[in-house]
Design goal:
- Keywords: Membrane, Transmembrane, Transmembrane helix.
- The protein has 192 residues and is α+β, with helices and mostly antiparallel strands.
- The chain has a domain of 89 residues.
- The chain has 4 helices and 5 strands; from the N terminus they run ααββααβββ.
- Strands 1-2-5-4-3 form a 5-stranded antiparallel β-sheet.
- The longest helix is centred in the middle third of the chain and has 59 residues.
């Protein structure tokens, strides 16, 4: 309900009309924002940098150490698998090439022990056990020829092939002494 506008009488003052604000305008004014002094921002940045370095550096070094350990372990495992593959081939050759006929059993001795395949042949060996070992080990033909042409004057000889070292000598009275071993020693775990 609206009141009629009053007319003032002589010497009388009109009461002030209440202030009205349009509904679209905000009634409260926004407080002025205070800006941080430059020195406060510099201190905050320095503190952040120090905290970041104190936490980030050890975490980064830890991650680097873990990555190095994993790489070392992977390399060791690969070398160990290769070494075990070489030993496996020696064991299989020993089983496959055991002398079968009566004369070869008497003249030839083929043993596998501790990563070494050893063949000792008699003076009059037929050579079948040696040929089997050369074939199963996939020896290069140049090496098998060299072994076949060995005489007592050549002394102890050796050669490397496919990760193996072959050592042999021949004596006219006792026959051939022949060993095959992995060229490298068994890898040791560097993380132990």
């Amino acid at each position: 309900m609206t009141t009629p506008q009053q007319t003032p009488q002589y010497g009388q003052m009109l009461p002030q009309a209440p202030e009205t604000t349009p509904q679209n305008e905000p009634t409260a004014t926004a407080p002025k924002s205070k800006s941080l002094p430059i020195w406060a921002a510099a201190i905050a940045a320095a503190v952040g940098l120090i905290v970041g370095a104190a936490v980030g550096y050890p975490l980064g070094r830890s991650a680097e150490a873990k990555a190095q350990w994993q790489a070392t372990q992977t390399t060791y495992q690969k070398q160990l698998d290769e070494y075990n593959g070489l030993l496996s081939k020696l064991r299989k050759t020993s089983k496959a090439c055991q002398p079968t006929d009566a004369y070869s059993r008497y003249a030839d001795s083929l043993d596998y022990s501790d990563g070494t395949l050893t063949l000792t042949t008699g003076k009059y060996s037929a050579g079948t056990t040696l040929e089997c070992v050369e074939e199963k080990m996939d020896m290069p033909s140049t090496l098998t020829s060299q072994i076949g042409m060995t005489n007592a004057f050549n002394g102890v000889q050796n050669a490397d092939f496919d990760g193996y070292t072959v050592t042999w000598s021949f004596n006219g009275n006792s026959g051939l002494n022949f060993t095959v071993t992995p060229s490298e020693e068994k890898p040791q775990n560097p993380n132990k």
